[in-house]
Amino acid sequence: MPLNFQRVINKKLKNIFLIFFIIVFSIPALPQDKILEVGEELNYSVYYGFIKLGEVKFKVTGRNKESKNDFITATASIKSFDAIPMININYIFESIMLTDKNEVRSSKFTATEFKEKSITNIYYTFDYDDEVIKTRKEIDGLTDAEKTISIENNKKYQDGLSLLYNARLQSKSDKSNQRYNVPVYINEKESSVRYSFSSKPEEVEIDLEDYGIKCVKVAGVADFVGVFGLTGEFIGWFSDDDFRVPVKAKFNVTIGSITLELASVKKKNWKAPAYK
Q1: CB of 56 within 8 A of CB of 42?
Q2: What percent of the chain clears pLDDT 70, i.e. is strictly above it?
Q3: Which pLDDT does position 16 carry in this prediction?
């Protein structure tokens, strides 16, 4: 091949690849990608009044696409401070979530509770094809209980962790005109959580920022009993942008009302939107 001709071909190929990369990397990320960003880390301080009880950490750890399915893996840790008397909470959760447009649903869930002298693991597998939920409970590595529960009416379940990411996605798709009644499987029982989103943004102040943050409010009722007796009415605030970062929340637990407040964030291209 003549040298000049080869140079022309190489130049054209370079131009084609350049145009391709410009097109690919100039496509804006979808809201779902901004919310379910692998590597996102959100850390919260837990308060009872002015007393700091402990911390909660969330992390999106991976993404795995299998044929037509898209799975997101997230973890959470909940730990009380050792100096707090009469309170000993130490959990790690992992959820594998199947994405579905503007929602996710639970595919697998693991809960690990660390007690003073034992470790309890609970495993859920949501088999939607066979319409069953398979559960297993282990104490110190030994199987304590196993059972299989039928899934009726084609329900798509949330676990105790996937709930958060599902609500973030739903808040982006519909702020105010729909009330959600979401099936939940938690504590080896079927339950539900109901919530809706505000139509107007609200200002939320936290110690992390020196200005008010523009937020979307979510309010609802949990029909289940979660960690430390969490149940009943709750309110929370997500950042009013494409990232929908949870900024603050209030829950009812065994000792009364507690507050979760965003303490640190690791997330690409996110800055809390200012309320104006």
Answers
A1: no
A2: 87
A3: 46
